[in-house]
Amino acid sequence: MSDGYYSSKKTDDICEDVCGQGSKAAATISRLKCVLQGFDLRTYLLLFIVMPFVIFAIYLHGQKFTYFFRPLWESPPKPFQTIPHYYTENITMESLCSLHGWGIRESPRRVFDAVLFSNEKDLLTIRWKELYPYVTQFVLLESNSTFTGLPKPLVFKSNKDKFSFVEPRLTYGTIGGRFRKGENPFVEEAYQRVALDQLLRIAGIEEDDLLIMSDVDEIPSAHTINLLRWCDDIPPVLHLQLKNYLYSFEYYVDSKSWRASVHRYRPGKTRYAHYRQSNVVLSDSGWHCSFCFRYISEFVFKMKAYSHSDRVRFSHYLNPRRIQDVICKGTNLFDMLPEEYTFKEIIGKMGPVPRSFSAVHLPSYLLDNAEQYKYLLPGNCVREKQTGFI
Ligand SMILES: *[C@@H]1O[C@H](CO)[C@@H](O)[C@H](O)[C@H]1NC(C)=O
Ligand SMILES: *[C@@H]1O[C@H](CO)[C@@H](O)[C@H](O)[C@H]1NC(C)=O
């Protein structure tokens, strides 16, 4: 210790000698030297090794810092009023409506299910088979542009034969992309939703028909839609609380998905949207399966195409081997922290999503065709090699 004291003392002495004399410029330079000499080794270490490391870490994980501290700068949205949901098999519709405090109608409402389609072929099949008994018209719009302005093949059009089971009830439309470079993806998305409003009118939607607004991967359960078409006093705009799954029904995340909604259509008033439009949500109304794709190539496409493509911060995120690894571990494709509003929830959800071994209460078409869709069921995280076209 005394040695250290001695050497720094000595440095100060030298400095005093030098700093006291010479021209102005020389004085400045030598003063700089003095300052540098005044730093000890630890300061240099901090400046040239620790600091770059910290900056690099912030560059790699900056998003995590902001997500982790989100509870400090953002308060949670106003909570929904959750309507309890009753259902059992073989119960009369009259008692079911009355359990919810609603009366029963003489005839059910007509139901329109409208989606913007990207490339979710399997989930579209499972969705349409689930809802088929109760839907009057399926309305599907697809564009040759992704929300991020990348050209996209008309996947539905080239697979139309696989969806012949809905043919008599289908209103299908296409729209040309605008392909604006560098634009916020939400603008293209909004543009496509406006076109979907027009397509709904073409499909013949009328006052008080039920309209389901949801993404393809947000699948309401059939009994939920049956309930809502039969009961009279349901709210004009009702959100559906769905169970969140990731990659397949093997990874159950939580039951907090709420973006899907059901509207009693009002001509000139109802607009197709995918954000919060009322304060009521019906509990346990179906499934939201994010990134539930059969092929790794479809993961890559979706990661580049969807509205949060800015999350692909490093190109190695798109590496197929990494993606397969992420799926089987139940970790995050974008290496992000959970998007939550309290520290308790963020910390509680950090790390991989635990595996679920339940395949109870899933869409019935999935279990009727378990072999064909086994990648969506527990125990089958390894994706098959792609053969032929998408
Ligand atoms: C369903 O309800 C009918 C009529 O109430 C009854 O006869 C039948 O046994 C019930 N089936 C089941 C599986 O509970
Ligand atoms: C997209 O579709 C529009 C309208 O059909 C067409 O004019 C345009 O050439 C298409 N663009 C691409 C990149 O396929």
TrEMBL record:
Swiss-Prot/TrEMBL keywords: Membrane, Transmembrane, Transmembrane helix
GO biological process, one term: N-acetylglucosamine metabolic process
GO cellular component: membrane
Keyword DNA damage: no
GO MF entries: beta-1,4-mannosylglycoprotein 4-beta-N-acetylglucosaminyltransferase activity
InterPro entries noted in UniProt: Glyco_trans_17
Pfam families given in the database record: Glyco_transf_17
Transmembrane region(s): 41-60
Keyword Transmembrane helix (UniProt): yes
Protein name: Beta-1,4-mannosyl-glycoprotein 4-beta-N-acetylglucosaminyltransferase
Organism, as annotated: Eutrema salsugineum (Saltwater cress)
Lineage of producing organism: Eukaryota, Viridiplantae, Streptophyta, Embryophyta, Tracheophyta
